[in-house]
Design brief:
Radius of gyration: 38 Å
Strand content: 5-15%
Shape: elongated
């Protein structure tokens, strides 16, 4: 038998009961409880029937489960006459169904669905199964941003109507969180041009300004219109949030609810009795619930324009959970994380700009060739200055977070230094003329050796160096043609490699030794020869 799991609570007895269909694990991942979901959606009277899914989501400890239990009373009532109070129950009866309690600790974990579907006939004559969903509250001290985004996005993706439960008023951060969560869901759906979600219902609890906007749907619609209004003079960020919300939902509505009374908020032993709830709250509750759940108001769940059955919803749950368990979706960030990331990246860019500007001044394209040892020394100095700029720039985020960006800066500096070294080497006249110079030296040496061997009648050695002279001459001709025409570049590369080998293994030793003894390391080309000699070692 499938049982509900709650923080510190005992298993809930047999149905009807809330079943935890998405389990929140300790490692901040989520797991689909297919047994529990199959118990509801796999019923013979549900699996082939169209479904209506009503979900309630929002911040924790704001009365979501409390509200859902009134939804249950309405759906269970024999009479659903909107003008009658009979569905609200006896004044002294405790409120039962989805578990709720007062206090500051979270109660609901993961996503819960009521095990009892409610069957209704729409005005069109179509029979549907109504499903009620409760969700883990957002922004408690145990949930990450990804936890909150996943629960809100998943419940929005599978619901016909998502009730966004808010306290006192719709604030800008509420809209920004909604934008983040719905964007996370939209990415998972991979929707293109179509509107990804169906209904969004802002439910503003504990509304205190009925003198400005009246309680109920009429006042809520006027208030919502004001909140979501866009103007040309509006800041782009504010306008973007509102346009995003409008574009993500087929219908957006709002209802303003009064405070239920001090007894509800302060009595430790309050059990949901109507006798302890303010009359004004009950009057508006009597209008709110039918507004969402009467047969005229029910909306069949659609995905990609197609109506969804119970069995289809089960398959969508499986598919969506695989997406959120995978690595394809980006990690949602909190406002602080996103700001700290941008702040540190800006500091990295400023430091890199300073490093590049200083090094360009020292060894830029307009500067002459610089001894490699001097260039490395300049690099070390400018790197320390760039790192000091980063460290002294005021940044957001923890020390470890900032150190990660300092490591990125160090890596970027080393990459830039490699480019400066390559540019400096290209300015070395000797490097540019190394191949022809080496080959010309070989021509001269072989010619002199041939003359010596001929003088002492060493004909075989004379023939050998003669062959070397012709090979060197042919390589010069081939190299010159490749440089002139741009063709047969593989041959040119081979000749360069041969000349480099001869220079490093033979000529460099002699050339560097003479340069060091005669000129020291003061002249650039002498320094280059000495550095090349050290490199070969």
């Amino acid at each position: 038998m499938v049982e509900e799991v709650r923080d510190g609570g005992a298993p809930v007895p047999s149905s009807p009961r809330p079943l935890q269909i998405v389990v929140a694990k300790e490692d901040h991942s989520f797991e689909l409880n297919e047994d529990a979901l199959g118990e509801i959606l796999g019923r013979p009277d549900v699996r082939d029937r169209k479904v209506v899914v009503v979900s309630v989501a929002g911040a924790f400890r704001k009365g979501k489960s409390f509200l859902l239990d009134f939804f249950l009373r309405y759906m269970r009532a024999d009479s659903q006459d909107d003008s009658s109070e009979s569905w609200m129950g006896e004044a002294s009866s405790p409120l039962e169904g989805f578990h709720w309690r007062g206090g500051t600790d979270r109660d609901t974990m993961g996503i819960l669905m009521w095990s009892e579907p409610f069957f209704r006939t729409l005005p069109t004559g179509e029979e549907v199964a109504v499903l009620l969903i409760d969700t883990q509250g957002a922004f408690d001290n145990q949930s990450t941003v990804k936890d909150c985004a996943t629960v809100f996005a998943l419940s929005t993706m599978v619901s016909s109507v998502q009730v966004y439960n808010l306290s006192q008023m719709i604030q800008e951060n509420d809209l920004q969180h909604l934008q983040l969560f719905t964007e996370y869901g939209r990415l998972a759906l991979e929707e293109g041009s179509s509107t990804p979600f169906q209904g969004l219902h802002f439910l503003v609890r504990d509304w205190s300004y009925d003198y400005e906007f009246a309680y109920g749907r009429d006042g809520g619609e006027i208030y919502l219109k004001k909140i979501l209004e866009t103007k040309e003079s509006q800041h782009e960020q504010l306008r973007s949030v509102r346009e995003h919300i409008r574009s993500c939902f087929e219908e957006v509505s709002c209802f303003l609810m009064p405070h239920p009374g001090l007894k509800v908020a302060t009595q430790r032993n309050f059990m949901g009795q109507l006798s302890d709830i303010e009359e004004e709250f009950k009057n508006n509750l009597q209008a709110l619930v039918p507004n969402l759940l009467s047969s005229d108001s029910l909306v069949i769940k659609k995905i990609n324009g197609s109506k969804v059955t119970g069995n289809g919803l089960l398959e969508y749950f499986r598919a969506y959970m695989k997406i959120y368990d995978g690595e394809d979706l980006p990690e949602p960030k909190s406002m602080l994380e996103a700001t700290a990331e941008a702040n540190n990246m800006t500091a990295v860019n400023i430091s890199m700009d300073a490093y590049r500007a200083s090094m360009t001044e020292i060894c830029g394209p307009e500067k002459p060739f610089m001894a490699p040892t001097d260039l490395e020394e300049a690099h070390d100095q400018q790197r320390e200055q760039a790192l000091n700029i980063f460290r002294t720039t005021k940044k957001m985020g923890s020390k470890k977070f900032c150190e990660e960006y300092e490591d990125k800066l160090s890596a970027q500096i080393e990459d830039a230094y490699t480019q400066f070294v390559a540019g400096n080497n290209n300015k070395n006249v000797f490097n540019a003329a190394r191949t022809p110079a080496t080959l010309v030296v070989l021509l001269i040496i072989t010619h002199l050796m041939g003359y010596i061997f001929e003088t002492f009648y060493l004909s075989q050695l004379d023939q050998f160096v003669d062959y070397l002279w012709w090979i060197s001459a042919l390589m010069i001709i081939a190299w010159s043609y490749v440089r002139y025409s741009g063709q047969y570049r593989e041959i040119g590369a081979w000749v360069d490699g041969f000349a480099l080998l001869v220079w490093e293994q033979v000529l460099c030793e002699v050339y560097a030794t003479v340069a060091q003894k005669v000129f020291g390391a003061n002249l650039p080309w002498a320094a280059a020869a000495i550095a090349a000699k050290q490199k070969t070692k």
